[in-house]
Structures are given as C-alpha cells and as structure tokens.
Amino acid sequence: MTLNVYLSGEIHTDWRDQIIEGAKGLNVAFNSPVTDHAASDDCGVEILGAEDDKYWHDHKGAMINAIRTRKGIADADVVVVRFGDKYKQWNAAFDAGYASALGKSLIILQPPEHDHALKEVNAAALAMARTPEQVVQILRYVLEGSLPG
Amino acid sequence: MTLNVYLSGEIHTDWRDQIIEGAKGLNVAFNSPVTDHAASDDCGVEILGAEDDKYWHDHKGAMINAIRTRKGIADADVVVVRFGDKYKQWNAAFDAGYASALGKSLIILQPPEHDHALKEVNAAALAMARTPEQVVQILRYVLEGSLPG
Amino acid sequence: MTLNVYLSGEIHTDWRDQIIEGAKGLNVAFNSPVTDHAASDDCGVEILGAEDDKYWHDHKGAMINAIRTRKGIADADVVVVRFGDKYKQWNAAFDAGYASALGKSLIILQPPEHDHALKEVNAAALAMARTPEQVVQILRYVLEGSLPG
Amino acid sequence: MTLNVYLSGEIHTDWRDQIIEGAKGLNVAFNSPVTDHAASDDCGVEILGAEDDKYWHDHKGAMINAIRTRKGIADADVVVVRFGDKYKQWNAAFDAGYASALGKSLIILQPPEHDHALKEVNAAALAMARTPEQVVQILRYVLEGSLPG
Amino acid sequence: MTLNVYLSGEIHTDWRDQIIEGAKGLNVAFNSPVTDHAASDDCGVEILGAEDDKYWHDHKGAMINAIRTRKGIADADVVVVRFGDKYKQWNAAFDAGYASALGKSLIILQPPEHDHALKEVNAAALAMARTPEQVVQILRYVLEGSLPG
Amino acid sequence: MTLNVYLSGEIHTDWRDQIIEGAKGLNVAFNSPVTDHAASDDCGVEILGAEDDKYWHDHKGAMINAIRTRKGIADADVVVVRFGDKYKQWNAAFDAGYASALGKSLIILQPPEHDHALKEVNAAALAMARTPEQVVQILRYVLEGSLPG
Amino acid sequence: MTLNVYLSGEIHTDWRDQIIEGAKGLNVAFNSPVTDHAASDDCGVEILGAEDDKYWHDHKGAMINAIRTRKGIADADVVVVRFGDKYKQWNAAFDAGYASALGKSLIILQPPEHDHALKEVNAAALAMARTPEQVVQILRYVLEGSLPG
Amino acid sequence: MTLNVYLSGEIHTDWRDQIIEGAKGLNVAFNSPVTDHAASDDCGVEILGAEDDKYWHDHKGAMINAIRTRKGIADADVVVVRFGDKYKQWNAAFDAGYASALGKSLIILQPPEHDHALKEVNAAALAMARTPEQVVQILRYVLEGSLPG
Q1: B77 near B5, Cβ under 8 Å?
Q2: What region, left, alpha or beta, does residue H105 occupy, with left being phi > 0 and alpha being psi -120 to 50 degrees?
Q3: Is residue E118 a contact partner of residue E110, using CB atoms and an 8 Å limit?
Q4: Which domain holds residue B13?
Q5: 3-class DSSP assignment, residue A144
Q6: CATH number of the domain within which A96 lies
Q7: What φ, ψ does residue H110 adopt, rounded to 5°?
Q8: Which of A49, B105, F26, G19 is 20 to 30 Å from the Cα of B28, by its Cα?
Q9: Residue E71 class from Cβ within 10 Å (0-12 exposed, 13-18 middle, 19+ buried)?
Q10: ipTM above 0.90, yes or no
Q11: Closest CA to F75 of B30, E71, B25
Q12: Confidence bin at B115 (pLDDT 50/70/90)
C-alpha cells in the first residue's frame, strides 16, 4: 500500500519538511502546493500578462495554482491541513472542505488556540494533531501498524 | 425553475434577511445553518450530555451542525458564502470548498479588504459580490433574465 | 427543508414509534425496513416458492428485503441505526456501513455496554445517542434550531 | 489482471495468513486492517494524547484506523469479510456494508452457525465461503480460470 | 415511500397490464418503453426522414427509443425485466445490464426454460419471478410489508 | 413521466417558441438560457460593477450566465442544442459537450450545411433534427408513443 | 496511451485469439471472461459445494464469474462484445448494457443477420464491426492513427 | 506528480509540437486526437465499409474518433483546447464542455479576436493563454513552481 498524502495550508514554517523527513522509509508519496509565496501570488501575471486591477492579478494567479491544488487533492488518500498562527488561511480551510466533500481522509494540524474556531473543520477530520511528529506517527501506524515508543 | 440557495457564513449581521427579503417573489428556496450562535455552540452537549473537555464539547456540537450543513449544501444549486470583518470564519471557507468540490455554483459575498486573502476562494466562484443587494440581483437575473435599473 | 430519515436496526422494541411520535409536527419523512420479523424472514419463499435448503430460504428473503432497504437508505438524508441488547444485529452494522459509504449523516442509537464494540461504527457517525428522545431533539435542532429545555 | 483484495474482519486466527500463503503465485495484492488488537485499540491515545473518557479514547483510535480501512476498501476489487465465532464483530459487518455500497465484489467467510444472522450480508455478496482455502480457490479461478482437483 | 418501477422487455403479452392492474392502490409509479412494435421500429425514419439502408433505419429508431429507455431506467428504483419465449430479446438483457450498473434493484420475470441462459442476469437480480402476480406481491411486500394469503 | 428539456444554443430566431408551442399539452418542462443578447452580455458589469478591460467585462457576465446554464443542463433529461447559420456558437457546442459528459440525451437541431462541421457533436447525440417540428415530434413520441401523420 | 480492452461474449470460436494476435505490437492490455465453458458453468459448486437445485448450481457459478466480469469491464476503456450465431447470449447483451451505463466505449462484433435484433445494442456502441480484423484496425487507428491499406 | 495533458482542438499548425518540445524534461504525459485530417475524416468507412450517404460516412468516423477522444480526456488532469483562426471548430468547444463537466482543469489557447465568442468557454477555464509558450510556462509552474525569466 502506497499512501498519497497532500500537505495543504500554512507555508511559512518548515512543517512539510519535518513530515517528509520523518516519513523517510515509509511508503508515502507527498504532494503540496507551490510554497514560494511570491511566485504563488504572481504566477498569473508573470505568465499570462499584467493586470491593472489587483483583483484580476490575484485571480489569474489563484486559478493557475488551482490546477496544482486540485490535482494534488484529487490524487490524495490523506490530506493534511496545517493552520498556523498568522493570516486568514481561508485557502487552507477551503482545501479542507474540498477534500472532505471528495471523501479524503483529513488530518488537521493546528495549535490549541484555534480549537474553537476550527471545530467544524476538525469535525470533518479523522485526526487532529498538534505536531508534525504526530502526523508522521499516524502515517507510520496506518502503513505499518507500529506505534511510537 | 426553482433555485435552491444555501446561505453560508457570517451570522452576526442581517445579510440573510436582506437577501431573503429582496428575493421575495422570486422562485427561490433558501436554507442556511442555525444562526443562533449559542445554540450552535452548545447543541451537542445540550442534547447528548456534557463534556469535561472543551474540545469534545465543541466536537459534538459541530457534528450535529454538520447534519444540517451537509443537507443544505447537497440540496443547493447555488451556495452564497458571506465573509464578514471579524473572526476566523474557517467554517465559511470550509463550506465554500465543500460546495465547490460538489460542483455547486458559488457566490462569494465579501468586503474589499479580504480580496487578497480570499483569492483562492473567489477563483472557485462564479461571482464575487459586495452587497446582499447584488446577490439578489444575480438571483433575479438567473431566474428571470432581468437586470437592475 | 424536509429531512428524510431512515430508521434502521433493532425491531423488537418501540423505539421507532417513540421517534415518530416525538417528531410530530417536524418536517420529517420517515422510512424503515419491514419490522414484522416473521414476514421479513419468510417473504422470499412465501412469494417466490419454498426452498429445501434453509440457506436459500434466507437468501431469497434477504434479497427482497434489500429492495426496500436500499431504497430507504438511498433516499435518506439521515440514517439512524439502533443497536439493541440482543442478537447479532449484523444487518444493522451493514446498513451503517452502507449508509456511510453513500455519505449519509449517521446517528447511532445504542446502550453504553456496546460502546467499545461499536467504536468503528460510531467513528463514522455524526451523533451517538442513548435514547429515542435524543434523536428527536437532534432532528428538531437540525430542522428548527431549537434546543430542549 | 491484478486483483486487489482487502481482508476484513476477525483478527484472532490466522485465516489471513492461510489465504495469502495459498494465493502465492497468483497476481493478487492483499491489504488488511492493523491486526494487532492492542495497537488498534490504543493508537489514538498513544499518538494524539490520553483521554479521560473511554469513549473518546476509543473514538480517536477508531478514526485513525479508518484512514487505513477506507483506503484498503477503496482500492480493492474484492473485499473478503471474515466472521468468527466470538465478539460482536460489528466492524466487520460495517466494512461489508461500506464495500457493498461502493460496488466492490464481496466474499463472506463464515461458519454455518451464522448463516441466519448473516443473511442480509450474504445477500449482498458474490460468494459465501466456509474456509480460507475456498477463498483461495475463488481467487485462482477468477484470475486463471482453473478449478481445484 | 413511492416506488418508481420500470417495466422492461417482452412486448407481446399483457404482463405489464397485469402488474399495473395488480398493483392498483399501491404507491407505485410505472414507466415502460413504447410497446407499439411498429412505432418503435419506425419512429426514427417517420420523424427524421427515410433511410435507404435498413441498418440506419433501425439505428435512428433505436436512438430515439433510447431517450425514453434511459430516462425510465434512470428514474427507477426497481427495474423489472421480462423475458418471453420468442425472439432474441437482447434489448431486454441490455436493459438489465444497464440497470445493474446503475445500482437499480432488478427483478427478472422469466419462464423456467430460460434459467440456464439467464444465469448471469439472474445473478445480478434481487428476485427471479415466474409470474406477474409474484412481481405484484413483491411490490406490495416492499411497500407495505404484507405477504399474500 | 415528466421530461425536463433544456433548449440551448442559437438565440436569434424563434425556434424555442415553436418547440414550446408545439409541445403544448405534453408533459414537458422547458428551460433555456437568458435569450436577451444585450442582458446576457452585460449582466456581469451591470450587477457587479464596470470593468475597464473588455475581457473581464465578458468574463463576469459569462460566469453569471453559467449559474443558469449549469442548473438548466443538470436538471435536464434531454438537451436540445440548436446551431444556426451565423456566429461562432462555441457556447452551443460547449453546452453539447457538457451535457454529453453528464449522460444527458442530446438532440442536435441544425441545417444540412453544418453536417460535416458538427459530425463529432452529432456522434454524441441521440437525434439530429432539421426542424423544431421534428423536435416536438420526438418529444411527443418519447412521452406518448405516438408518431406524426 | 495504453488501451484496456475487455473481450466479452461468444466463447465457441477463436475470435479473441484473432484480435489478440492481430493487435500484437499495439499498446493494448486485453481481459476476458473465463472461456472454458464447463469450468464457467461449474465453478460455483466445484469450489463452494454441490447444490441439489440446478438453479442455485447456476447461481453460485454466475456470481463467482461476476467477480471477474465486473473487474474486467470496470478496468476497460473499450469493451468489445461479440454475438455469434448460436445460443441466447443474454450475458453478452447484459455486459453491453453494463458497460454502456459505465460510459465505456463499446464495439459490437456481429453478423448481419442479427442487425435488427441488436439495434438497441448497436445504438449504444461507437462501432459495429463484422470481423475481428476490423476490431484490430479500430484499435490500431485509435492508438496510432494509421489506417489499413 | 505526473501531469496528464490532453491537447484538443486545431490541427493545422504545429502548436502541439511546440508545447511538447517546450515541456521536455517536465513530468508530463501528452495525449491528443488523431491529427491527420484525412484519416480522421475517413477512418469509419475505411475500416467498417463505405457509406452512400455522406452523413453516415462522417458519423462512423466521428464515433471511432470518439473512442480516442474520450479516453484522452478521461485520463487527463489538464485539457488544453486550442482555437485557431479558421473553421467552425465545434469539436474543440465540445471537448472543452465535455472536459469541464468532468472537472478537468481547462486551459484555453486562443487569439484575441475570439475573446468575445469564447467568453463562456473561457469562463469555465483556469487559464486563457495566447501562445504555446505560455502553456508550457503554466505546466512548468504547476509541476515545479518556477516562473519564467
């Protein structure tokens, strides 16, 4: 069994690297969005031409990013969505809803201060984790049946 | 043609009433989540028994609310998601993602200051409106082909 | 919003009547399997002819009952599955799994002594209730937003 | 043609080993749940933290196990569900219902004393077998067209 | 519960009338193909213009008939397929396969001499009946839980 | 049986009126896009605000029109797509492809000079008609089994 | 592009071998039912135990064969269904209907004397061929764009 | 992540070669229709026999081409549809609609003079590009996150 795992959400800390590093040796294939913030914001206009209106500037970029995001989620067995402590992160919650409607197994990775605000998102998930290490332990257990410690 | 419209998101202003009032006479059936904040937070423990842990308190409530939300979105042709100027509103973005994956027609209702943060959500929508009146005008046009003014 | 509710599982107590009675006045349409135990066991051979082998006797009946069960679950928004204190009740658990795979909102109604044995079933549900009254309260809240007491 | 086979149900005898051993040389890929009973019960709290309430202890574990179970069933062409002679085994029946709703080919493996109690489950299956060897013979026939003896 | 029943297959005896007559008072909505043999054969060329080639003559008619057949099966909960004692009746078997792939509950109505030739079709059905009266009894049992006699 | 029919394509002649008039008395519910050309072009900017760039002007309108078009096609049993003798009519062909992928019964209404250019579209259809009267005759035959003349 | 092709229907001539031989070098993966008539008839009772009643003898076998047939059709891009000049061949027509409902590309291989009886089946197909060689030519054209001669 | 890309539409310039050449080294698998115009027009009659009527000549060919087109679109993650400056190109728009209904990510490649006529098609797309090079840049960004220049 190979597990396809999509790592959605917060892009300012190294949580993806921690999970990918921790999962070395496991039969997991990871995908994620483009995590270069500037490229992600500007890909639309850089490739398809400038826009005077910031709204359409953003729109063109968001649509190109959607090509990757949709593919990543559609191919995934498990979608991990990380909520950090800054920004609105509506795209993370959007991905969680999108993945949930497709019947993907959701793991939410979030700090305790967001518990109440994320209650609907967590209610759609199969696990709510606090640390990347816990996500790795879940993946290891799911694939190999072994528990930490 | 009857249009089923689900009104998701912000529950602290009267935008739903404005849309429902404005759409009087149109062939629209509206649904929405429970908008009584306290009831929505406590429905789980009120009905199924208290929890010591706030996390499970929230969880039981969010799962019961999901019965209504899922039904409302599943039945909808159009899902309007309103983002206000307060709170995290991750449940709103979650609903938008959920509706999008089901192929529902999305209308996002939001103030300009959220344009950048909502760019991925807007990119999945068929309309981004600023006022409840615009939503009504869209519904009227979709159903009757008539434009304002 | 009309809620279609399928009442699956245990057929030896009056829990269905309690829920239907309690939900009077709510916008709910109830369905359930044939609850006449003898008719349910013998419908196959009574209609389609006797079988020497008890296995095929049972088989013919179970297949005819499946016509009703599948329709009831397919049409449902909410599937309530009741586990009693007797019998194997594998058909109840089968219905729960079937409903879950179709994305129906599951409510499990069960006594505390089954908590551990039903943990996988409960993990797929949006509510675990102890009494028919709680199920009614959930339906009332989902439809009207009002809590008991 | 490679056949993906998920082996669900009873975890206290070596029936899985018998089938996997017997199917050596056939083009079959097997998957199964975690069959370490203790790990399966405790995975939730071992990874994500202890719970005071046994119900949530079970719940957290069951949800993590669901990541593996759902993936195993979703990927399967054939789901074999084994009912033993002990315990409630509602998770086995739940898996059978879940697999049936997804259109998987079901094989039920069970002793004669359960025939009546499993009649609804058997009615959804393409084969009811008594021994692991029969399951192997079915897989061999399906893949290679050859019969025993 | 209203049951939608599509009556497919043989068009030279009055079995449909017997079922519809027998089911009077039951909550059933029946549909069926056009049973006027000549109209069914010629509808294509009568409406859309003559064809020199008999193959296309047949083709145009069969495609128009498909509009009705697909709609009838798509809307059905139960598809009854009747095999008579004459003709090839491949359209009947085609409808059975089509309905089966859509997950419809199949009832096959056929004389004993076809048992072996119909074994694959019967294996996909929930009931194999010999008489229209038995079909009526199944519908009555499914809707009202009452058995004959 | 009520047939839902969506009338897509050319908006400059009265073919829709002819079909609706001819089908009076038949159990058909018709839907169609907004056929007021100016309103259809400008609905986006009239409701949601002007755009400097003609591309986004068109885009906003086309997305609002998609709310109606998608609903009309999704609800339809039969989609009639009319190709006239002017304009590119790519939206008509787009609707035909969209409807085809959803498994709708397609009827193409077109003049002979487009036969070759429409061969892929016709190959996905169940009927190719030359006149609105023929479409009416198909609907009458499908619903009532009666042929013209 | 690899094309998965399922070869359904008549099992008494070597048409499958002709197609497989003719398609050598093409990127095609073929599957087919068990074509050993005796094994196909008796697999149920040989593996799972004898039945007194011929109906159940046939039934058990047909259900085991369905494991292979469903998998073969589900995995296929193209389903070729061959009708010969003997027997009822209802399983062939059933497979054609099943494949059609799943949206598979159908090729019907049949002699001219069956044209009228197969008109509904042909109307669901993308090609009606007379010889195995024509089927090979279609596969070659679809994969490589080259025509015979 | 491997991206499956289907290149639909105009077959008279070398835009496909430019994209395939430009995408060398990227993890992309390309498919496209048969682009030999004469073969595409005549494949039906060349393989399956001549037709007197040009309509059926075209029809037989278009249906065989549909085997390849459907497979290509069904397997694709991204469908690029190119509109050139000649011909009706209704098959291109049909493919765009077909792909859109299946939820594929659409990229439209078209010259500015078609902007208005393609507004409904563009409204269903995630990108509207002017040059094959832009399509390559989108694919590179989606797969590797890198922007041009």
Answers
A1: yes
A2: beta
A3: yes
A4: 3-33+75-144
A5: helix
A6: 3.40.50.450
A7: -160, 155
A8: F26
A9: buried
A10: yes
A11: E71
A12: very high
Beta strand pairing call for B78-82 and B3-9:
parallel
Extract the tokens encoding B96: 């938008």
Q: Kindly report, residue by residue over D34-64, the tens digit of the pLDDT.
A: 999 999 999 999 999 999 999 999 999 999 9
Instruction: Reduce the DSSP state of residue E114 to 3 states and report it.
Output: helix
Q: Does the residue A103 lie in any domain? A: yes
Token digits for F62? 């086309």
Which pLDDT band, with edges at 50, 70 and 90, does G122 fall under? very high
Residues of A in contact with H137 (CB under 8 A): 47
What confidence tens digit (pLDDT) does each residue in A55-93 have?
999 999 999 999 999 999 999 999 999 999 988 999 999
Q: Best residue in G5, G51, G70, G71 to probe D by mutation, most D CBs within 10 Å?
A: G71
The two tokens of residue D40 are 């399966």
Phi, psi for residue D132 in degrees, rounded to 5: -55, -35
Please count the structural domains in chain F.
1
- pTM for the model stands at 0.98
Exposed, middle or buried by CB within 10 Å (0-12, 13-18, 19+), for A136?
buried
- Long-range (24+ apart) CB contacts under 8 A made by H73-76 are H73/H6, H73/H8, H73/H98, H73/H99, H73/H102, H73/H104, H74/G77, H74/H102, H75/G1, H75/H4, H75/H6, H75/H31, H76/H4, H76/H5, H76/H6, H76/H31, H76/H104
Q: Does E133 contact C at CB distance below 8 Å?
A: no
Amino acid at A77: D
Contacts of residue H82, Cβ cutoff 8 Å, sequence gap at least 6: H7, H8, H9, H10, H15, H92, H109, H110
Question: Please, what's the b/e burial string for D42-59 (b: 16 or more CB within 10 A of its CB; e: otherwise)?
Answer: bbbebbbeebeeebbbbb
- Report if residue G17 sits inside a domain: yes
DSSP chain G: -PEEEEEEE--SSSHHHHHHHHTTTSSEEEE-----HHHHHHHHHHHH---SSHHHHHHHHHHHHHHHHHHHHHH-SEEEEE--SSS--HHHHHHHHHHHHTTPEEEEE--GGGTTTTHHHHHT-SEEESSHHHHHHHHHHHHH-PPP-
**Is E99 inside a domain boundary?**
yes
Cα distance between residue A136 and residue D87, in whole Å = 32
Nearest residue to A9 via CA among A134, A113, A132, A138: A132
Judge contact between F72 and F33, C-beta under 8 A: yes
Residue E71: name the closest of A75, F142, D138 by CA: F142
Q: Which residues of C touch D91 (CB under 8 A)?
A: 93, 119-121
Q: In Å, what is the CA distance from H43 to each residue of A115, G79, G133, H31, H66?
A: 62, 19, 14, 19, 11
D98 in C contact zone (CB under 8 Å): yes
Q: What chains are in contact with D, requiring at least 3 Cβ pairs below 8 Å?
A: A, B, C, G
Note the pLDDT tens digit of each residue in B15-72: 999 999 999 999 999 999 999 999 999 999 999 999 999 999 999 999 999 999 999 9
Residue H127 to residue A67, Cβ atoms within 8 A: yes
**C-alpha closest to that of D13 among D115, D87, D122, D63:** D87
Q: Residue E121 corresponds to which tokens in the numbers above?
A: 């079709």
Quick check: B60 and D59 in contact, CB under 8 A?
no
Per-residue tokens: F126:
């169940």
Rg value, chain D, Cα: 16
Sole residue written with tokens 């921790």: A22
Cα dihedral G69/G70/G74/G78 (nearest 10): 30
Specify whether the CB–CB gap between F70 and F63 falls below 8 A: no
The tokens of B7 are what? Answer: 């009104």
Type of residue found at E140: R
| DSSP code per residue over D68-103 | HHHHHHHH-SEEEEE--SSS--HHHHHHHHHHHHTT
SS3 label, residue E106: strand
In a domain, residue D91? The reply is yes
